[in-house]
Amino acid sequence: MSDPWQTDRLDLAGYLDRLGLTAAPPSRAALDALHRAHVRTFTFDNVDVLLGQHRGVGLDVLSEKFVGRGRGGYCFEHATVFAAALDRLGYDVERHLGRVGDPATGDVQGRTHMTLEVRLDGERLLCDPGFGMSLVRPVVLADGAESDQDGWPYRVVRTGGGWGLQRLREAGWEHAHTTDELPVLPVDVVIGHHYTSTFATSHFRNGLMITRHDEGRHVSVTATALTVRRPGEPTAHRPLAPGELTDWLRALAVPLTPDEERRLLDRVAGL
Asked: Is the dihedral of CA 144, 30, 216, 175 positive or negative?
């Protein structure tokens, strides 16, 4: 039977080489290592959306982008690449879609976030490699389950027909997103990506977002501001100085061609 996700189009050896890992049989330790290496290797960003050069979420395109060029992307890209790698390595993985925001306040978006579920050794595990403040490693899908993510506390809560992911912040638990359990087909990912990357009022088209997990910190850069989070410390937030965005493109290892960088700076200046 043919694979509707076309996972054979991922350069698995090249992907693992990017992560600095070798192939290993499915295990919780190996899965944790893959997840951690992924979110520390690839940025979460919407650079190609702003540049108007997003070629879609097919695995041939994403393999060339992530593996070939070392570029990152947003949730549909990260989750598609990570799921393909897990499939090829022998994991039982299922794609899910979800809504960003807190359903208790009504502040939610469409089904425009993509996560993964892995079933391993009798546990259901949530993998979330493509969120702005991504998990460092998978968390157990069980109501009330808490997880220390390198000093950042997270927990999972049951929410009707789905699972909510929450992060403990200075003011208390913040609801990040809710993942549902409806079946997902490749066309659903294409539709979600098309909306988020082309709809006029999509926040991915109207502001720059580049984030990355580093050792001991999480860095987020927008067109105008820098945010640095460190476990157990108050969040540091300040405006970007003129010309500083270029420095952070280097610091966060966003590999752009000179033309891409010039066009990105021009696009950001016009936001």
From this structure: negative
Which tens digit of pLDDT belongs to each residue from 99-117?
Answer: 998 877 777 788 999 999 9
> Domains, the chain, ranges and CATH?
7-269 (3.30.2140.20)
The stretches in the chain having pLDDT less than 50 are none
Express each pLDDT in 165-182 by its tens digit: 999 988 889 999 999 999
* CA dihedral sign, ordered 82, 112, 159, 103: positive
* 54-63 long-range contacts, CB within 8 A, separation 24+: 54/193, 54/197, 56/190, 56/193, 57/189, 57/190, 57/193, 58/6, 58/9, 59/5, 59/6, 59/7, 59/9, 59/10, 59/84, 60/6, 60/9, 62/10, 63/9, 63/10, 63/11, 63/14, 63/15
Following DSSP, what letter does each residue of 151-219 receive, concatenated?
TEEEEEEEETTEEEEEEEETTEEEEEEEEE-S---HHHHHHHHHHHHH-TT-TTTSS--EEEEETTEEE
